[in-house]
Design brief:
Elements: H1 2-23, E1 34-35, E2 38-39, H2 44-59, H3 65-83
Antiparallel strand pairs: 1-2
Length: about 90
């Protein structure tokens, strides 16, 4: 019974966080980016969201492989954008 409830929570979290990761793409900025107000840092939303998506995607890999793949793709895409130098 407990494993079933835990898997339902994990599935709901996966299906909520992966779309949220893709919706947060507007907040993705390189590390050295500058905006109109000066230097922009790392978004606090992404700092919390992306590790959560990574953990939930890895934990759900065996049951929901396609959604977990898209979650991992979003995490690695965010990491690539963050590490790219600003032009």
């Amino acid at each position: 019974m407990a494993a079933s409830a835990l898997s339902k929570i994990l599935r709901a979290t996966l299906f909520a966080l992966v779309p949220a990761a893709y919706l947060s793409m507007a907040l993705w900025r390189p590390h050295d980016s500058y905006g109109p107000a000066g230097r922009e840092g790392l978004s606090p939303v992404c700092v919390v969201l992306m590790p959560a998506v990574l953990v939930v995607s890895v934990l759900s890999w065996n049951t929901h492989r396609l959604v977990a793949f898209f979650g991992l793709l979003a995490c690695f895409g965010w990491l690539a954008v963050y590490l790219l130098p600003a032009l």
